[in-house]
Amino acid sequence: MANKTINPMLKMALEMGPIVLFFIGYLKLKDSSFNIAGTDYQGFIVVTAAFIPLMVLSSGILWKLTGHLSKMQIATLVLVTVFGSLSVWFNDDRFFKMKPTMIYTLFGGILGFGLLRGKSYLKVVMEEVLPMRQEGWMILTKRLCGFFLGLAVLNEVIWRTQSTENWVYFKTFGLTAAVFVFFISQSGLFQKYGEEGEDAPDTAD
């Protein structure tokens, strides 16, 4: 299926909608408990159970409309399904809280493996939307690898030391803001190594 372009706002809604609904659902049900088939489930587990099919549905719609899902989106969907299902099955929120750790460790590990081979796997998935010279890709990949692994460690610290509510706020807003700030902070790198600036000095930072 050929890739198709869709309205950016619709794309953002499909990507961020499930996360926003998870947050709203948690706020409404965080103090509730539900007895299902003789087992008591806290609101967090119930919201997690609803989040999984919502993620599958939104990803399916996005694939149907665009004809494409990135490797990152597929990996995230798989890990959400696996760790979310484990939390529901064992009635244990720790599995779902570990999910960001696994995601960022996986992404950081893949980028690190590529760096050991002298390659930028980040370039493979982002080159079309962010034209940049090879030197720039290697620097950005090193930074993003360290950033992802740092987020994995931070998530472990937060969910193990903070309340569930604090973790939900961290996951919904903290992680999203951190990624946004990271890429904004790389604007100098993009300007220096962008393909439009072939005359820029060719030195690493």
From TrEMBL:
Per the record, the similarity remark reads: Belongs to the YciB family.
UniProt keyword Transcription regulation present: no
* Native source organism of the sequence: Parasedimentitalea marina
Q: Which InterPro entries match?
A: YciB
Keywords of this protein's UniProt record, alphabetized?
A: Cell inner membrane, Cell membrane, Membrane, Transmembrane, Transmembrane helix
By its UniProt entry, which Pfam families does this protein fall under?
Answer: IspA (PF04279)
Q: What is the official name of this protein in its record?
A: Inner membrane-spanning protein YciB
Transmembrane stretches, start-end: 12-29, 41-62, 74-90, 102-122, 143-161, 167-184
- Chaperone: is it a keyword of this entry? no
| Subcellular compartments | Cell inner membrane
- GO CC terms, sorted: plasma membrane
Q: How does it sit in the membrane?
A: Multi-pass membrane protein
Q: Which domain of life is it from?
A: Bacteria
Q: What does this protein do?
A: Plays a role in cell envelope biogenesis, maintenance of cell envelope integrity and membrane homeostasis.
Q: Name the principal localization, coarsely classed.
A: membrane
